[in-house]
Amino acid sequence: MGERQVKSKERVAQHGEVFTAQREVNAMLDMVQDETERIESRFLEPACGEGAFLKEILRRKLIAVRQQHGRRHADFEFYSILAVSTLYGVDILADNVEICRENLYQIWNEAYTADVEKANARLKKERRPAAERNNDLCRENVRFILSKNILCGDALTMKHADGSPIIFAEWSLPRQIQRKDYAFDKLLDGHNEQLSMGTTWTYDAEIDALVPAPLHEHAPCDYTRLTETDGEV
Ligand SMILES: C[S@@+](CC[C@H](N)C(=O)[O-])C[C@H]1O[C@@H](n2cnc3c(N)ncnc32)[C@H](O)[C@@H]1O
Predict the structure, then answer these.
(1) How far is the CA of 50 from the centre of ligand 1 (A)?
(2) Closest ligand 1 atom to the C-alpha of 11?
(3) How many Cα atoms occupy the beta-carbon half-sphere of 114 within 13 Å?
(4) Interatomic CA distance for residues 132 and 135, integer angstroms
(5) Ligand 1 atom closest to 25 (CA)
(6) What is the DSSP string of 5-38?
């Protein structure tokens, strides 16, 4: 079946609504291929319609997520949400906005559900109980992100129909946690006049005291791998 590029003559006349065919979408995105495959690169489709470009960018990013982070379900989940959070769109017609959000959600959810099933099959094979992750909560969060990223408004005036400004959310998903080990006695020294020699001190305004250099700075790591820092020297 051919692609539907026009919904009605009226919409073409009033809003210039002619959707871009997949072939052109692919050709244009191929010109910035590296960016479309970089999970955290941000894209804005300022007259997004049903999301012709955003959909394809999401597909490409999800392939990158699968290739780079497909070994652990927790990683796939995190990076696939990150991928969704980088996509922004505006359209003047509310029905297009709804369809665009839904299209992106379906593309993400199909990939996500496949990964959930893959993870559960792996656990079953290893005779381990399936992890009780809250997949539906995760789905809800993705819908929430899309409700903030794909907005109805005028991309020329940059306002909603009621005249309020279009506001985009920037999502940063800090996932790393860092462990630093301090000697108890040195920490107390920081409040004293007498400081131990041979230690580097930094002033911490929040506690109004000098803080010693940590004994060891562990490399920042994924929070789900925190216990692994115990194996480090
Ligand atoms: C040519 S279509 C392109 C849609 C989509 N980008 C694509 O490539 O399939 C133009 C879209 O811009 C929307 N549009 C028209 N005027 C607009 C404006 N001032 N602000 C935001 N969107 C607008 C229309 O509703 C329509 O969906």
Answers:
(1) 9
(2) 25
(3) 11
(4) 9
(5) 8
(6) --S-HHHHHHH---PPPHHHHHHHHHTTHHHHT-
**Residue given tokens 């305004």 in the structure block:** 205
Among protein residues, the one with the nearest Cα to ligand 1's atom 8 is 20
Pair of tokens at residue 184: 């108890």
Sole residue written with tokens 């990150």 = 82
**Which ranges of the chain have pLDDT less than 70?**
1, 130-133, 190-196, 221-233
C-alpha 192/C-alpha 40 separation (Å) is 46
Q: Is 151 in the pocket of ligand 1 (CB under 6 A)?
A: no
Distance, C-alpha 120 to centroid of its chain: 23
Confidence (pTM): 0.80
Q: Do 12 and 6 form a contact (C-beta atoms < 8 A)?
A: yes
119 Cβ closer than 6 Å to some ligand 1 atom: no
